[in-house]
Amino acid sequence: MNSAFFQEFRDRDLVRGLAESVRRLTGGRGKPMTFMEVCGTHTMSIYQYGIRSLLPPEVRLISGPGCPVCVTPVGFMDRAIACARLPGTIVATFGDMMRVPGSSSSLLEERAKGADIRIVYSPLDALALAAKNPGKRVVFPGVGFETTAPAVAATIMSALSRGISNFFVLCAHKTIPVPMRILSSDPELGIDGFICPAHVSAIIGAGAFRFLAREHGVPCVVTGFEPADIMRGVEMLARQVSEGRATVENEYSRFVSEGGNARAKDLLARVFVPADTQWRGLGVIPESGLEIREEYREFDAEKTLPLEVEEPREPEGCLCGEVLKGKIAPAACPLFAAACTPEQPVGACMVSSEGSCAAAYKYGQ
Amino acid sequence: MDNDLILLGHGSGGRLSHQLLEELIIPTLSGMPPSGLNDAAILEHEGVRLAFTTDSYVVDPIFFPGGNIGDLAINGTINDLAMVGAMPRAISVGLILEEGFSKRELGEILRSMREAADRAGVAIVAGDTKVVPRGKADRIFINTSGIGTIRRGLEISGANARVGDRIIINGAIGDHGIAVMAKREGLELETEIRSDCAPLNGIVEDILSGGEDVHVLRDPTRGGVATTLKEIAIQSDVSITLNEASLPINGAVRGVCAVLGLDPLYVANEGKVLVFAPPETTDGILERMRRHPLGTGSAVIGEVTSRGGGKVRMETVVGGMRAVEMLSGEQLPRIC
Questions:
Q1: What CATH number has the domain bearing residue A152?
Q2: I need a surface site. Which of A107, A268, B142, B315 has the fewest CB within 10 A?
Q3: How far apart are CA A113 and CA A100, in angstroms?
Q4: Contact of A152 with A140, CB cutoff 8 Å
């Protein structure tokens, strides 16, 4: 990793110059421009670099449903917990999932009570764990968007070809364009433009968002995570709005192409099939999830393991749903920083390192 | 949720650790301890001022680039004494060994303990060894306690930060935590990241040798620089502003943190000291620090900006402002 590579995207004068340009584009317009950053990594970056403090008051940045852990519903956590309670079972998970509350427990609590739960950085690590522990089941909770799903697809195919039969995926993968369509037509939100999710765009391509500009008239910009990327993205959106245009522009061409990553898309198509799925806060959205295909069903924890799950109970008073839709800022939730903190989270948005509430708590107070 | 459970986060050095200390450990054991939440307690005995401290080490893996659990255990306790301005005098060592642990590895660990103690000029004077059945501990845990003497008139405490104080650090942050984690997770890196584990009593002596007012010394171990500064802001009832652009961070550490989504401000250090001193003294202190082998990368990273608030804010590299809070949960467990 070459840190000099980052430096040019963290140049103070460049960022200030772009902020000045945003000020000129938005000044004297009478009403603010509202841009939604869909991806949790953008949310984190915006807080981490203090981007809002550099923007004029005429620009409102709201956070969308792009934090994979946050949109994972309570019922999924209950099923992951049920996996952890099965005898002879190791749950190998991304660390972010540990503290997400289920209806009455969390993976962290289950581990403290003796369940075998390991933190891994990749689904391939979970597969390696399965190969090393043939006498045990290894369950990997598959969460995330088009970014993490191809690696899970590759891992499932690898498990098949290596004949590893004690590896399972509890699948809650989701795709992002459909919920963006729903949010773009919500009059209460009044979204003037999308900062499109960058990692997702690297997989599905900038072209995957064209329907939003064409059919819904919403300007879109694909941009990176460095402060100059984000500021440039905001400036490009402000320019489209002020010129009355709506198109998809790609600021992140160093990583994102129009068509995306053909190999990753092929992996997704081979292992998964689109399915209706439940989103925390947004409810069931048709064709917005990825289900493991029938031919790989032996790896599908949902279909093969005897999971005993209680009726999912949403935490009382939690407004994660409203936060995920961008309808309220984290601090507007009465639980924020009072009953709900990173140590004792009530809702998922306070847990994940990409969650809006966690970002607001850590960087914004 | 079950509130009775001890979670790994309770040992992170961050907010959960503070809760456990404040709600259970301190009220049950002693009320407010004489250490006043500083790294070591200060005791007066027949005209002699003594500093006393204790620390336990459970790092996993026990051998990592730049050190092992043995020199870590010696240096950590020496540093806790140095942070109240004490000259370390004597150390005790308690070993908890797991049945089946290797004598060869134990020997290697003991030799590094001896070397670390020699390097710092401290004697190991007492000890204890226990062995527990296989599976009841993880190879080796070490407790060390230390005693040091404090010069008359020296008043260094986390409660002494004053408005205007400049904050100096003696070099790059995050090396220890990332070195341990990279080893534990088997990350293959182009450049090996080595722990900064080192005894700080020498450089602290140099810092204090000019006779200037030094208000606070604190080693940013678990929870990193962010958590330590927040603790000091609360303890001294002041607000602090950090300057992100001036934070020394090695390129390799920056890279690993970027990839894994970690913030170097929250990563543990084992050979770093934060110094709070009035602005007129900064040049002299900084010059002496930079002459010391452990201080060549010393830099001013921020200042105490106002009374009250207990807040830490940071001017980001691009000129934005944001809050800096304590570590919450467990960023990297078993780092020391």
A1: 3.40.50.11740
A2: B315
A3: 16
A4: yes
Please, what is the Cα angle at A267 between A263 and A269, to 5 degrees? Answer: 115
Domain for residue A328, yes or no? no
Nearest CA-CA distance, residue A208 and chain B, Å: 26
The structure's pTM equals 0.82
- Tokens 């998964």 belong to A272
Q: What would the mean pLDDT of B5-28 be, rounded to a whole number? A: 86
How many beta-carbon contacts under 8 Å exist across A and B?
A: 103
Return the pLDDT at A353: 76
Nearest residue in B to A6, CA atom:
B255
ipTM: 0.76
Count of C-beta atoms within a 10 Å radius of residue A8: 10
pLDDT at B72 over 50: yes
Is A361 a member of any domain? no
Contacts of A225 in chain B (CB under 8 A): none
Searching chain B, which residue's CA lies closest to the CA of residue A14?
B318
- Domain ranges for chain B: 34-149, 166-324
**Other Cβ atoms within 10 Å of B245 Cβ, number:** 13
Residue owning tokens 């402000």:
A238
CATH 3.90.650.10 fits B166-324, yes or no: yes
